[in-house]
Amino acid sequence: xxxxxQKRRSIKGRFILPLMTIGVLSYFGYHIYHGEYGLYxxxxxxxxxxxxxxxxxxxxxxxxxxxxxxxxxxxGHIERDMLDEYARKNLNLSKPNxxxxxxGQGDLSx
Length: 110
Known about the structure:
This protein has helices at residues 11-34, 39-73, 80-90. The chain is mainly α. It has one domain (15-91). The longest helix has 35 residues, at 39-73. The mean pLDDT is 80.
C-alpha cells in the first residue's frame, strides 16, 4: 500500500487569486465610468458636439449673409451703394458736409 502526502494549501494561497480578480475588476470597472473614453466622458463629448453644432449653424448664417453681399459685387460692376458703404466703414471716408454717428456695429456681416 502506498501513501501519498497531500499538501495543504495555506490561507494565503486561497485568497490571492480572488483578491487579484477583485482588484482587476475594480480597476476596469472604475475606468469604464470615469476613464478618458468612459461613460461620464461620453456625456461631456456629446455636450461639446451640441455646442459645436450650434456654433456651426450661426457661422453658416453669417456665411450666407457674406455670400449675399459678395454676389452683389460679382456681376462685373459694383453697385454704388455697396462701394459707398464699404468706403465709409473700412476707410473712414466721409464728405465734409456730413455728420458721422459711430455705432457698435462695425463689420460687414450685419
